[in-house]
Structures are given as structure tokens and as C-alpha cells.
Design goal:
Elements lengths: L8 H9 L9 H12 L2 H5 L1 H8 L3 H25 L5 H9 L2 H38 L19 H16 L5 H22 L15 H12 L7 H4 L8 H28 L21 H12 L12 H8 L3 H35 L18 H17 L2 H29 L12 H17 L3 H25 L21
């Protein structure tokens, strides 16, 4: 049977049970963990993209995306507390609904992590270019700071950061909790400073019309902005190390999402209320142009050449640009510097997640086991890291940030939907199994997560919608042509037999 291969939940837990986890995290620590995982790329990079899609109603878009994340996070937490091992949604799906769908989820997670890392690399490039201009008055040629879809040729800074991150992951450079805490503080401080300078001077007239492109634009922006919330699962995956997880996990999840959403809404309001406004850029006929298109890039160049302020949808570093327009160029440059310092850590964490998904799939026999090889000195899965890094660099070289974020969201939304389905299936199939965290009102929350993910997926641009089934078709060809015959579950290899080799060093 195609759906008959289910990897025993007990077998998956066998490795985790060999090493008990110390429960030391409380609600406050989980909330800080969630804030650190969420605040980053989306608000610094995608604000201009959301403005072009929704205008001032991108404030509502942030709320919609946050709600879908909240119900999905509650489902995610139940499985994470039951299956505290590597593999994320791929492992959960394997344990509940079988190998084929697990393969599809793992294959879709490539879109989340690898393509997401490409999107962050492109966003980082925009801030680096702005920093060079703001601090040193150096103008990098547009041909070498954007891909062909955004009016350039190749995005060299994005390629550089992608390859540098790959090298760091290969040699096993680790981030300490202290460094992570500093980066979180930098991000939160930067957004707080922006609000202090932008909110008191915002103009109410800039919010009219509030929904210039209608509900379609608002939901389209919500689908893109969903990328700004990816990272909240860092809370749910810590369930096994949390004191009183049934109480503290939902507090950490909801509190971090509420705090981040308030930050996002206030920052968006400050940006829209600035002299730049928040209306989409239109062509001569009055039609709103597509974000990330060559037509939008040309229109933006024409507006600036005519002596007008660069509109917010045109800026590659929107928040820093707003502060400069408000008469605070030094503060704007410092905010851009904060983003420049903080965003590479997001690239690193996304690429780390991708390599570990690949590592787990290769360990299960679904990908060539050579990909799970660990370097004898660095103790990292160097081969799969190199392959991932090259793919990330190529994508970031030629595609704009908005398109990459949309492609990433299509894979993420599919994975989250499968997690919600898995929770429902497991509640029916194994209702008596111990659950350190139980999703409240599961028969309401899980369906809301499924519907929310579907609505946001269908609100993505058409090409992003088509990317997922096209990518899935490639995945099915690989699965039936290679993976199914080599699967450890299909060959009867137990969980204890496929753990050979030195485990990779974690980041």
C-alpha cells in the first residue's frame, strides 16, 4: 500500500529516550525564544513588498498571518512534545500518516528552508547596499545588486553571504546563546527606535484609501507576510525542556506572537504614516505594478529621476529609508546597520534547518546515504551543507526577495497543514498516548489551521501557487524512482540500526 509505511512512533522515540531532557524553561524564556525566532527578515525586508500588494491594509495582513500562525503553532506544539527528535514536520508526518506524505512534507520543507534562506540573503543584500551608500557614499552598480527579474543581472552580495554562511556551517561554527541574545536585543532595539521616531509624526491622511487593492490585495500581502512569522516553531520544539509544558508552551507561543504582531503593526503604521505614504506604485494607466517585477523597478527609477521621494514599495531597506526621509539619516543608517548585523544569523539558522532535514531523510534511506556523511574533523554533514549552499546562492543570485519569500511560504504552508492533519489523525488513532502538551479545543483549532493555510496558499501569486505542485511532481518522481526502494522502513531496518556514524555537531 502506498500509504501503509508508517514509521513507528515508539521507534522514532527510541533515540530520544536514551537521553533525557532537563526541564528548565519557563514561560518567560519561551516567550523570548519565540520573539528571537520571529522578528527578523519579514519586518526588515518585506515591508515594501507588502505595501505594494495591500497599501495601508497591510496592518490587517499582519493580523491575518499571525492568527494562522497561532493555530498552526498550537498543533505543532502537541507533536513536538510527543516527538522531540530531529526532522520537524517531516518526522511528525512519518509517524502518523506514513512515508509518502512524510516524503512530500520533507520535500516541501526545502522550499521553506533553502528558498527562505535565499530570500533572507537577498534582503540582506539590500541593506548592505544601503549601508555602503549611507556611510561611505558608495553606489554599487544596480546590475550587480539585483537579479534580472528586479532589473539587474546578478545579486553578488546575496551570493557572498550565502556562500559565507555555507562555509561557516561546514566548519561547524556555533552560535552561543549569548550571541543570539545580543542579536535579539539589537533587532528589538532597532524596531523600538524606529517607532519612537516615526509614530509621533505619522499623518492620518496617508492611510486613505486604506484598502486600495481590495481584500485580494490584503490577503495576498498576508500570504507574503507569513514569511515574517516563520520561526515561531522554536517555542514548540522546546516543549520537552519546559517546566509544566501544558501551561508554559501556549503562553510562550501566544505571548511571543502577540508581542511580535504588536511590533509589526506599530512599525507598519509608522512607515505608512511617514511622508513616503503607503500606497502602491502604479503605471501610467493607474494599474498597480507587480512586486519584484522589472516594470516596477523601471517605474521606481523614473519616479526618483523626476526628483520625487523614492516610494516605500521601491525601497530595498524600507525602515531605514523612512527614518532618512523623516530627517534622521544617522538613525536610519544605524537601523540599517542593525539589520545588516542581525539578518545573517537568520540565513544561518534556515540553512542549518535545511541541512538537518536532508540529514534525517538520508538517514532514513529516502535520500542517498552519502548525503548523511559527517566530516571526520568538523563533525558536520559537509556534503549536504555544500549542496544546499550552492542551491541557495544560485536562487539568491537571480530572484527577487518577494518571489523567493512567496515560494518559501508555499512549502511552509503545506508543511503546517500536514502537521494540523497529523494531530487530528493521531488523536483518533492513538488517543491514550502521553502528550506533555495537548492542543486546546483541537477539533476547532486544527481545522482553523488547515483552512487558514489553504486560504493563504491560494492568496499567493499564481506562479508561487504552481511552484508547489510542480515541485511535488519532481519529488514524486524521485520518491518512486529512488527513495521507495531504499527506504529503511520499507526494507525492515529498525530505528536502532540506522543511527550509525558520528552525529553532526549542532549549531
Amino acid at each position: 500500500m502506498i500509504f501503509g509505511r508508517v514509521k513507528s512512533l515508539d521507534a522514532i522515540l527510541a533515540t530520544a529516550e536514551k537521553k533525557s531532557l532537563h526541564r528548565s524553561l519557563g514561560a518567560f524564556q519561551l516567550t523570548m525564544l519565540g520573539i528571537g525566532g520571529v522578528i527578523g527578515t519579514g519586518i526588515f525586508v518585506l515591508t515594501s513588498e507588502a505595501t505594494q500588494k495591500a497599501g495601508p491594509s497591510m496592518i490587517i495582513s499582519f493580523m491575518i498571518a499571525a492568527f494562522v500562525c497561532a493555530v498552526a503553532a498550537l498543533c505543532y506544539s502537541e507533536l513536538a512534545s510527543m516527538v522531540p527528535v530531529a526532522g520537524s514536520a517531516y518526522t511528525y508526518t512519518y509517524a502518523v500518516v506514513g512515508e509518502l506524505l512524510a516524503w512530500m512534507v520533507g520535500w516541501a520543507l526545502i522550499l521553506e528552508y533553502a528558498v527562505g534562506a535565499s530570500a533572507v540573503s537577498v534582503g540582506w543584500s539590500g541593506y548592505v547596499v544601503g549601508q555602503l551608500k549611507g556611510w561611505l557614499d558608495i553606489d554599487m552598480p544596480a546590475a550587480f545588486t539585483a537579479g534580472p527579474f528586479a532589473g539587474g543581472v546578478v545579486n553578488i552580495p546575496a551570493v557572498v553571504i550565502a556562500l559565507l554562511t555555507t562555509w561557516l556551517l561546514m566548519i561547524g561554527t556555533s552560535e552561543s546563546a549569548r550571541v543570539n541574545a545580543v542579536l535579539v536585543a539589537i533587532k528589538v532595539l532597532a524596531l523600538t527606535v524606529f517607532m519612537i521616531f516615526a509614530l509621533p509624526v505619522m499623518k492620518a491622511r496617508n492611510f486613505h484609501p486604506f484598502m486600495p487593492l481590495g481584500a485580494v490585495g490584503t490577503f495576498g500581502a498576508a500570504a507574503s507576510i507569513f514569511f515574517a512569522y516563520v520561526g515561531f516553531d522554536s517555542v514548540s520544539t522546546a516543549a520537552e525542556e519546559t517546566r509544566d509544558p501544558q501551561r508554559n508552551v501556549p503562553i510562550g507561543l501566544i505571548a511571543s506572537l502577540i508581542i511580535c504582531t504588536l511590533f509589526y503593526i506599530l512599525v507598519a503604521a509608522g512607515a505608512i504614516g511617514s511622508p513616503l505614504g503607503g500606497q502602491p506604485v502604479r503605471d501610467a494607466a493607474g494599474t498597480a505594478l507587480l512586486p519584484g517585477s522589472a516594470e516596477l523597478a523601471a517605474r521606481c527609477q523614473a519616479i526618483v529621476a523626476g526628483g520625487a521621494l523614492e516610494p516605500m514599495p521601491c525601497s530595498r531597506e524600507a525602515l531605514a529609508h523612512v527614518l532618512r526621509v523623516l530627517g534622521h539619516p544617522a538613525i536610519g543608517n544605524l537601523l540599517g546597520l542593525a539589520a545588516t548585523l542581525a539578518l545573517p544569523s537568520v540565513v544561518l539558522l534556515m540553512m542549518f534547518g535545511q541541512t538537518r532535514i536532508f540529514f534525517t531523510m538520508a538517514r532514513d534511506g529516502l535520500l542517498p546515504e552519502r548525503l548523511a556523511a559527517v566530516h571526520p574533523r568538523w563533525r558536520t554533514p559537509h556534503i549536504v551543507t555544500a549542496v544546499t549552499g550552492v542551491a541557495v546562492a544560485l536562487a539568491s543570485a537571480f530572484l527577487p526577495v518577494g518571489k523567493l519569500a512567496d515560494y518559501s511560504n508555499s512549502g511552509t504552508l503545506f508543511a503546517f497543514m500536514m502537521v494540523a492533519i497529523s494531530v487530528l489523525v493521531l488523536r483518533r488513532a492513538d488517543p491514550d498516548r502521553h502528550r506533555p502538551f495537548r492542543t486546546p479545543a483541537i477539533w476547532i483549532v486544527a481545522p482553523l489551521a488547515i483552512i487558514g493555510c489553504l486560504v493563504l496558499y491560494l492568496s499567493l501569486p499564481l506562479i508561487a501557487i504552481l511552484v508547489l505542485p510542480g515541485w511535488a511532481l519532481i519529488g514524486l518522481v524521485i520518491y518512486f524512482g529512488y527513495s521507495r526502494q531504499r527506504s529503511h522502513v520499507g526494507r525492515g531496518i529498525s530505528d536502532g540500526d540506522d543511527q550509525g556514524g558520528v552525529p553532526p555537531r549542532t549549531v
